[in-house]
Write a structure and sequence with these properties.
The protein is mainly beta. A 5-stranded antiparallel sheet has the order 4-3-2-1-5. The chain is globular.
Length: 93
């Protein structure tokens, strides 16, 4: 999946670590939250597979911006920038 800068996305709300050992690079507090693509960073080997010495396909990595108020109830207004791989992002209309 290729996402454009400015695309609205939602972080997939799945919990693969409940199925056994997992290395998830996407923070729990972002799952199900909406953000915006601000930069394409390139393609890199999937760290979720590399952590277990498995063959790792290359995946697109993005900077995604989130409003702190959308993440935490008592947050001061701020933007939160996070690196997230494409297989954790769902494009929103």
């Amino acid at each position: 999946m290729t996402l454009d800068v400015g695309s609205r996305v939602r972080v997939d709300d799945r919990w693969p670590e409940r199925q056994g050992p997992a290395h998830i690079r996407t923070p729990h507090y972002l799952r199900g939250r909406r953000g915006k693509i601000v930069r394409y960073l390139g393609e890199f080997a999937d760290p979720e597979q590399l952590a277990f010495n498995r063959p790792a396909q290359r995946r697109a990595l993005y900077h995604v911006m989130f409003a702190s108020a959308d993440l935490w109830v008592d947050a001061e207004p701020a933007d939160i920038l996070v690196e997230i791989f494409d297989h954790w992002l769902v494009e929103e209309a």
